[in-house]
Design goal:
Length: about 375
């Protein structure tokens, strides 16, 4: 088997960034960038990272789906294709969503609160969640969406122009626009901008470790603690996500977890208890967890929204198991979205929706008892 690793040195990357800024479109190690015409838009393609030739075709090793593709075949995430025996990503420099969001929207509650994140997404996803809120862009390919031409250097300059502290790779699934996210994050880091990853965490260890060298914070969806539910709800497996959580944490990326509670699917309190117990036992007791409220959408439109009492019970269960920072999400006005000192109970950050209405932290400490509150605060 032949591997195409695309490893580059920092010096080489910086040289290439200068070339990029000068209008030469090739970034190093990823092959030629080609412009072609999509159904609605111009699309770009770049040689994919982590591809491997096998007897059955070209394998993509970015996520656990490990698609093996023959000439002309499109990947499961709909944005990778084999052209003349080389795997290309079609999701590069062509985001279909570009917005400025409060960092709280990711949600990241312990990472630069009150700042803005320049947020981008291309079309495509490696899972197929029945409850996807962004299905219109996640369950399609970049040739079917209305895109903006925005190369990595332009993302960085737009981020600076809009006075954002970070770039967020978000909305659809950034694992599937890995090359675009990686190159942009590398340039952003050189410019002193932070990078945040909002993801399903469905990624193989090797590409994830490489990604962690340029990512500062991540919010990962832990969709369920039951393998069969994971498969039926999203088409994925639980274990790779648990492995990813450990890698993010071990590589020093600030991590928060989202667990969406869907009535009849992921609202079993015994399972939530098991999940919290696993998190505590595996060293995540200081990792914030967000129990998010489900609203009927996509293929689960027939279900009711999650009752707020169920979310409140999940918060209590998580705290009882030993998790320190537990929040509800998608429940505006719920005081369980505020940050309290786990030592003395003082209300430290008060939120209204995505807005910070009070911040009583003294640096990174509780202003009353002096306990250090985990997070990246400024
Ligand atoms: S990132 Fe896409 S092409 Fe690669 S293995 Fe995952 S689903 Fe397949």
């Amino acid at each position: 088997m032949e591997r195409r690793e695309n490893k580059i040195s920092k010096r080489k990357f910086i040289r290439q960034c200068a070339a990029l800024s000068a209008g030469m479109l090739c970034l190093p190690g990823h092959g030629l960038l080609v412009e072609s015409s999509g159904e609605n838009q111009n699309t770009f393609r770049r040689e994919a990272m982590f591809q491997e030739k096998t007897a059955r075709g070209i394998m993509c090793r970015i996520c656990p789906n490990e698609c093996v593709l023959k000439e002309g075949e499109l990947s499961q995430c709909r944005n990778r294709k084999v052209i003349r025996s080389v795997l290309y990503t079609l999701a590069y420099g062509n985001p279909c969503s570009v917005n400025v969001d409060p960092i709280e929207k990711k949600p990241l509650y312990h990472f630069l609160p009150g700042t803005r994140a320049f947020s981008i997404a291309t079309a495509g996803c490696n899972l197929a969640c029945l409850n996807c809120q962004n299905w219109a862009i996640s369950q399609t390919g970049p040739d079917k969406t209305r895109n903006i031409n925005l190369m990595p250097d332009k993302v960085v300059s737009e981020c600076l122009a809009k006075n954002c502290s970070s770039i967020a790779y978000t909305y659809s699934e950034p694992v599937t626009f890995y090359e675009y996210a990686f190159d942009t994050a590398f340039l952003a880091k050189l410019a002193g901008i932070r990078n945040v990853f909002k993801s399903n965490g469905y990624i193989n260890p090797e590409p994830l470790r490489k990604l962690c060298t340029v990512i500062d914070a991540a919010n990962i969806d832990l969709k369920s603690f039951n393998d069969s539910t994971y498969l039926r709800l999203s088409g994925g497996k639980l274990q790779p996500v648990l492995d990813s959580l450990r890698i993010f944490r071990d590589m020093g990326v600030w991590l928060e977890i989202t667990n969406l509670i869907i009535p009849g699917w992921t609202d079993d309190m015994d399972e939530i208890k098991k999940m919290c117990n696993w998190l505590v036992k595996n060293g995540f007791s200081n990792t914030p967890i967000h129990f998010s409220r489900f609203y009927p959408t996509y293929k689960l439109e027939q279900l009711p929204p999650t009752p707020v009492e169920v979310l409140n019970t999940a918060v209590k269960t998580a705290r009882d198991e030993g998790l320190q920072y537990v929040y509800t999400g998608n429940v505006p006005g719920n005081e369980l979205s505020n940050t309290k000192c786990p030592e003395c109970g003082t209300e430290l950050i008060v939120r209204q929706g995505y807005r910070i209405v009070a911040n009583n932290l003294a640096g990174s400490k509780c202003s009353k008892c002096g306990k250090v509150i985990d997070g990246i605060w400024g």
